[in-house]
């Protein structure tokens, strides 16, 4: 229901009780507004603008430049020099955006005597293309009389709907971030490379620079960005950043060089490794850049660019305009670079499959350990239409080193298997059994976080005794709970009545969604 229909409601109850309810609604509405504003600004792309108005009067305008987010309250007075423009330098932490949201909310509320944020008119767009952006729940253009007529209960319901919408947008962005981290993290793990920055599943933390920076040998940095093209855009959208007063595009040497040096986590790494900082500054380090693009089917394409040695002498700068543009939207272009991107085609669309550590065919098909010790092996399988079949391939062929990361990404992109909670003889459990890749979900940090949440435990024991079976329990178990868990795992492992192939009698130890250890027999846990 739109706020325009709120005229139909009237006040009920005593005036004093109504005033108390309105005060509660007012406080909650401004809190939700400040959080919504912070998220909108955090996610605002370069050359994006957000404007809030009251009827015909603009009260605040935000502009995302390549080097900072700038904003001004009461822009008409700012044009006359009466109000200063404020700025938040890039890259900034999310906590700073929350502070900006809180500050602006307080200023708007007091300076313009705004009762509720629903009175604002919100607009957002990309300056150079005129593309209109979503403003979420920032404004509804409702007048005070309509709000008052609706009554506090209905407005409270509207505020709660705004909060739910905010939570949904935040969760969607977090899921996309986690997908990027899973994809890139598995690429580095598969190649056996050291990750210097990246792999943090937490979101939001700070402005994005590059997704991963790692060492590929003593004299080569590997820089990786992941773009989840879940809307199946025909071309990759431009990502640009300001360098020396102009904008450069993703893949350009100046872009790559500026991104790694703007990354605060990488700067901390260089402080701890002065030899690396010296080699980089002297041009003795090669910087390779790879862009991974994932589509809605979770297929991956890889674009590699010309290596960078030292800071570029010139940049392909583009003039920056901070004024709204009426230009028609333009089609997204491929990332820039000195050479055309190289698209590496995978021989098949892979999924991971767990096999016992002593699987007799392990010498015939490429495989990887799922954890340390005598843990199950990971092999790759493909959807053949009428079932899945394990695949063999040349692991040294171009692009095939991306197969395992692609498989984990496809696993993460599968529909969410529902977690079923239960308590068996005092043992709290969750399982997502009964699906094609239930057991393999132990490899998916994004999915396993749901088990952590359901059991309210940062550490879990996870059993995958047979194909399509996964059972998780809290890490801390008393003697009786441990005995029940051991019995459940053993019975399932020995039960062949459903025809599901056995995988392991052992159990994985997970922390915050990731495998950190493996015990090869659940019955050894008492001594673990």
From TrEMBL:
Name this protein carries in UniProt: DUF4905 domain-containing protein
Organism: Nocardia acididurans
Highest taxon listed in the record's lineage: Bacteria
